[in-house]
Amino acid sequence: MSEDVWAAQDTNPDAIETALRELIRERHAANEALAPARVLNLVVIVEREWKGEIANRLEGVGRYQASRTVLCAVEDNRTTLDAVAVMTYDEPSGSIGVMREQVEIDVGPEHLRNLDTIVDPVIAPELPTVLWSPHGHDEAVQSLLHMIDVMLVDSDGLLDPATAAVRAKQLLEHAYVVDLAWLRTTPWRERLASAWDLPDRRQVLARIAELTVRHHPGSRASAMLLTGWMCSRLGWEPARLRPNNGGGGMCGSARRDGHEVTIALEPIDQESPGLGGVTVTGELGFSLSLDRATGGLCARERSRDGEERVWQVLGASRGEGGILGEGVRQALLRDPTYGPALDAAQRFCPS
Amino acid sequence: MTVIVEQTELGENPLVEGLERLPVHPTALVIFGATGDLAHRKLLPALYNLAHEGALPERFDLIGVARSEQSHEQFQADARESIERFSRTKPDPDVLRGLLANTRYVPGSFDQDSVYEGLERTLREFEEQAGHGLNRIFYLSTAPQFFPLIAGKLGAAGLREVEHADTRIVIEKPFGYDLASARKLNAEVLDVFEEEQVYRIDHYLGKETVQNLMALRFSNALFEPVWNRNFIDNVQITAAEDIGIEGRAGYYEGAGALRDLVQNHMLQLLSLLAMEPPAAFEANRLRDEKLKVLEAIVPPAPADVNSMAVRAQYAAGVSGGVSVPGYREEEGVAPDSRTETYAALRLHVSNWRWAGVPFYLRTGKRLSKKVTEIAVTLKPVPHLAFQSTGSVGVQANQIILTVQPDEGVSVSLGAKIPGPRMRIRPVNMEFRYGTSFLSQSPEAYERLILDAMRGDATLFTRNDEIEALWGIIDPILTAWHEDTTSEIPQYPSGSAGPVDAEALLQGRQWRRL
Predict the structure, then answer these.
(1) What's the whole-model pTM score?
(2) What's the complex ipTM?
């Protein structure tokens, strides 16, 4: 990977944009086979002291790098803009090579209210723009909402799932929301959908009596979203969950055709964020558990007559780098089931 | 809140909505020819990648069948080595271990009943472990002479169907050697299996760009109005390789360029390019439309073959700066071989949309460059107000779809050269997968294996389609076979092909490679 760099202190958006155009023009003139990636813009707002950590996370997304990343680092007491623009490229292996641009702009708190006037000139025009603001900075987010297409959030990052749900719903009114907490549930949703695709099990789907979701202590939002997804897809009526005898768990129920589905969210001791397991139990004694294991999931099925089968469902863990990369990729897609799942999850949240 | 539960009564799975990865029924995949090159370079790595991404069904079992005597463990060890070498993603040791743990090996010749008994036993064991029927896929990755034998033996052993699950047979190319053998093979396979169970593979159809040809045509209003004889002057489909036969004389001497690439891949590209929009992107609707195109191509009369088809062989030359031997000097090739390493055709699709538009197809080995592309050239504008002094002038618009190496689409347009005079030169508007999408294209085999497991035959070739494909080139094969005296034109290795191919174009020019 090679790179061209431009840097300036006390600069302005026009100068940054001109520098970017010039970097592309010069590199293309030197090698016509190099073309700029044109998929999407990613705007990131971070505390300056955490800039390195966020940059590392962005590097971890691998091939899901945005075409142009604009990282705004907020520094106390700063009143001017400093900027570094880096264009990275691989020498072409076929007839073309791809260039990507990263811009870091150091901004001060004063700039946040009108951050759109700094970011708008710098992003690549005509491309969808994704905004990620992992450290809050609501003022900056508000300023940018009118010009973005997608908001990347992580509902697991907020301590209170109720607040996370309210915030995600508010954002949904302005932009398409890609929620990393939702993406942590993707393999589980896929496997549950697959498990209930078998005709014999499908009959049980309409007669579920219990749903238990095991999760990392910091991933209750993921657990609620998975539960909300089951509710919204199966037409269950959610009711508020309550704390379950300490330990951070939640329990409660949902209504299904006049029957009750018992719901439990159980924090478990696991290293990775996200879910650890799901157990679905039918009225007639059938149950299916999926639990995180090496090389995929461990599936455990108990039939109505008590016979138990255990097997491995294959799949590599994406890791948190993979989740963020998936978040960037999902910005180009639309998932119609997140909104209804979020609605249901919000109704589970204690007030 | 949307209430979906009623759908469960109707048999729909309400949990599937919105998912990118659709459920696949638990499956046992049997690869005949499991120790072969295709299995080790493509199929096993493709299966691993599907496992890595969590795309395999919740229960997936693999059985390798081949002649060599070896244990399950030895087959697993060889499979591991191939996956580690050829997989596009770095294998996760735990996923790989899990995949191989459910892998078995059945040794024996394909004509031995014991092979099918062993297979039946192993499949039953897997089904007992699962507690329910597994879909069965028999993947024939063997030499083509074994296809009817294996199909017949599977039928005789009662393996053509299973209770509460589906059985499918995937057949690699080449499907037949000519029209008669393709018909015979179809009859033999369909004597055992229903057409719905048969998946004839052409891995080109699994390539993203090939599928994108349909997206380009049918999701953009821009192209359809000009996609006909009124606006299109000609179409050129090129599949050029810069390599020689790479030690595959045994196969290539019996095949040649026409069978190797034109009969399948290139005519598939032609049919996708020329077909009418299907009412739905569904297997039979799509294949019906492709078939109509193939049936509209009138096969040449014997006397016309020389005027619409050119064959040639590569001679010694320089490729990539290295001196290389001619085809007849390659190891295993007869010094008087008449097998063509280059074939070019001019075809016409005789229907309302395409009447009068020539479709030029060319393929060859040891050409100057590796490229597979479709070039659609539009007719020139009817009147030109600009003089071309001092410029290359106005050229007809071209739409170029590149299948490999850099998948994408480009459209050439006339644009004004900056300056005081009105001078025009062609410029390109380019779309490249590499610059416009974030994700890597999956290997064609991953897509096709998954489709076969899901029972989606859209990207596979139907029996009538395969016979129509052979029907187009059969007269050419016959004419070339019967001509035992004329000189086979030679072209230098590393060149753009034989000069004789120019004559097919009737005053036009081949696109530069």
Answers:
(1) 0.90
(2) 0.90
